[in-house]
Amino acid sequence: MEGINDELIAEVDKNETTLEDLISKFADASKDQNRIIHRFMKSNKRLMTENEEQKNELTELKQQIDANLSKEASNLTKKQKVHNDAQSQLSEREFRLVEAGRTIQHMKKEIEHKEQKINRLDTNLSKLNKENQELRTRIETYCREMESLQRKTDSFEKERNELQRRIDSWIAQKNSADIATVCIVVKIQMYAAVKKELCDKMMTELEGMLSTHLALMHTPINVEKHKEPPPDSTVPLIVICFNASRLGTDVNQAIHNIDRSRTIAVVVLHHKEHHALPNHPSENLLIGSEYKHIGAIVDIAYLTTKGIYPCDMNEKSLDRLVNFISSYA
């Protein structure tokens, strides 16, 4: 029994020792475990902090990615719109280019057609230029011949007028000498309101023509030329009027200071070529009451270089003046 107890005690002691070793190891293990747990908790806290930071970074990164994606999407949309617009414009330009190409082809055909017409016109123009040059040469030759003929005509005209004046003067002198003893000399007055050298020339030329015509009728005349209205109202008066503006105005100015109780004849002088003379006599145009006292209104055509030149109007007017003067003989 004692041996069994000793063994049991010994075993108990051994077990106690083992237990103590186990408790010591357990305590050491607990300490190690605590250290491990502490390190684990510390590591876990650090990991949690890092995880939180990474999570925040991830959130920020995600936000940046979302923002970038949104921006890229917006840019892509804009680029797509620009691309679509560019594509649309390109299509429109291509259409316009096609239309422009057709127009160019049409214009090329028209240009070719017009060039052909221009070539034909150039050919015709060359012919016309040649013909025009020939005509110009002929015209220049004719002009020189006409100028030569005109100079000869003017010379002949001057000689004719001078001869006519001499003949008229001779006839007038002869007739005056023949009938001076039996005929009564008719006194005539001439008056021009415009004091110009041309007035004296026209009155002198008109006097010569009237003297010649009346001498053939054996009616000698004595002409007095006045630059102021003559006072004697019993003598027939011929008033010279230059038609420079309106007919009525010119005639009214010419007879303005003349007594209306006397009978007068108005000679309207027209400085015009034969082809430009008026179609209607002045007396048909002056029909107002202020012209009733005028015994005769006649038109005389003249040129500065030729004086009173021969024409139908002048012949008729001289006949009217001769009749006007003859009524006083």
Description of the structure:
With 329 residues, the chain is of the alpha/beta class. The chain has a domain at 185-326: Rossmann fold. 68% of the residues lie in helices and 12% in strands. It has five helices and six strands; from the N terminus they run αβαββαβαββα. It has helices at 2-179, 197-216, 247-254, 282-285, 312-326, and strands at 186-192, 221-226, 237-242, 264-271, 294-303, 307-308. It has a six-stranded mixed beta sheet, with helices on both faces. Helix 2 links the parallel strand 1 (186-192) and strand 2. It is rod-shaped and about 230 Å long. The relative contact order is 0.06. The mean pLDDT is 82. Pfam families: Nsp1_C. This is Nucleoporin NSP1-like C-terminal domain-containing protein. It comes from Mytilus coruscus. Residues 63-155 form the Nucleoporin NSP1-like C-terminal domain. Keywords: Coiled coil.
Fold blueprint:
Blueprint: H1 2-179, E1 186-192, H2 197-216, E2 221-226, E3 237-242, H3 247-254, E4 264-271, H4 282-285, E5 294-303, E6 307-308, H5 312-326
Parallel strand pairs: 1-2, 1-3, 3-4, 4-5
Antiparallel strand pairs: 5-6
